[in-house]
């Protein structure tokens, strides 16, 4: 009887070991599959994909995987592989960070990035457009709608010109910025991106939607605004803080014939990022293109930034830079 019980116990113990081993192997296999999916995205989409030693990157990453047991264990390996992409802009957001981005500003207790606008001296339309760093579509609508509200109110006046302030725009999501400023841009090919294979694509806006390469990217629940003062001089204020999507907007404006850039050169993150959601909800953000303007000029030197037409280094001196903007508008109006 004791022998029979002992045999049963040994069998149960063996089954438990096999179950644990099987579970561990399944986790290891899932981690490997997850890592390879991330590496495959980098290899197929990175702006520098044709310049990198992918055999070395895969080999090193898989060697680092030997101690990984879970998907979470692959995060440092993915970040290490991303550092080899040499684009200074790609990123990785684990699921908990993505959850915060999806919740948006108000649900996470953050101040909402509303645009600021006012009429200066009765006939200069001033609009300050901040960056937006969330992936909540209701927030996108509110952000863009508030910009449009400011534009519409200012446009009800007989303006001498516009002052668009991007000095504090440190980037984030391009689509809501573009949607909010669509009265200036519409479907004109003002700013785009060139990928690693030399293929160009441009952004546009039509019927409440942002397009890229003619394909709809996102549809907004926002009003459509038509400008009365669209052809008036536009002065765009920039600084070293103006970055990423803020630089896309800078280039879009600079491609218009009635625009002057005034301030300091921009930050120099002049590349196009795309978010890829992985199987556990993490975001793999990859730099997949470089900014081009309407003339197909390429802004591919990281850190160089966009040079203003009128250089003012002291961009925090508000009175000085606003006076310079007004004077430039007046001078251009006389021509």
UniProtKB/TrEMBL annotation:
<keyword id="KW-0732">Signal</keyword>
<dbReference type="GO" id="GO:0004175">
    <property type="term" value="F:endopeptidase activity"/>
</dbReference>
<dbReference type="GO" id="GO:0006508">
    <property type="term" value="P:proteolysis"/>
</dbReference>
<dbReference type="InterPro" id="IPR029045">
    <property type="entry name" value="ClpP/crotonase-like_dom_sf"/>
</dbReference>
<protein>
    <recommendedName>
        <fullName>Tail specific protease domain-containing protein</fullName>
    </recommendedName>
</protein>
<feature type="signal peptide">
    <location>
        <begin position="1"/>
        <end position="26"/>
    </location>
</feature>
<dbReference type="GO" id="GO:0007165">
    <property type="term" value="P:signal transduction"/>
</dbReference>
<dbReference type="Pfam" id="PF03572">
    <property type="entry name" value="Peptidase_S41"/>
</dbReference>
<dbReference type="GO" id="GO:0008236">
    <property type="term" value="F:serine-type peptidase activity"/>
</dbReference>
<feature type="domain" description="Tail specific protease">
    <location>
        <begin position="95"/>
        <end position="313"/>
    </location>
</feature>
<dbReference type="GO" id="GO:0030288">
    <property type="term" value="C:outer membrane-bounded periplasmic space"/>
</dbReference>
<dbReference type="InterPro" id="IPR005151">
    <property type="entry name" value="Tail-specific_protease"/>
</dbReference>
